[in-house]
Amino acid sequence: MEILMKTYTKNLTTVLISWKRFLGAVLMAAIMMPVAVMSQDTVVNLGTAGNFVILTKTGITTTGTTQVTGDIGVSPAYAAAITGFGLSEDPSDIFFTSSLVTGKVYAADNTDPTPTNND
Fold first, then answer.
1. Domain range spanning residue 26?
2. Which whole-number Å values give the CA distances from 63 to 74, 78, 85, 94, 106, in the listed order?
3. What is the mean pLDDT of each run of 10 residues along the chain (119 residues)?
4. 31 lies in the same domain as 52
């Protein structure tokens, strides 16, 4: 029995060392693999989405302690999906305003051209 245990222990140790070496080699290969890095000169064209600091599909919510600088919008959601901002409709019905937003608030149910701007 003692010889069997020594053989088992030796075999198990050999297997574990082999796995350790294998995993170490895989890890080193992953570390050494070249990584694509975008340069600072690379510009991603966001289209009209680039005009927004927050643009979402489902909604925007605040607890009232928010201060947003820039335009925010939801699409295809309606203004009802923007909660906590105390929205006031602009007379043009193209956007809303809020004391918490330094900018305009857009939703898909505003008057044209807003719905096409948010798509």
1. 1-35
2. 18, 19, 8, 25, 19
3. 58 67 68 64 78 91 90 92 93 92 92 66
4. no
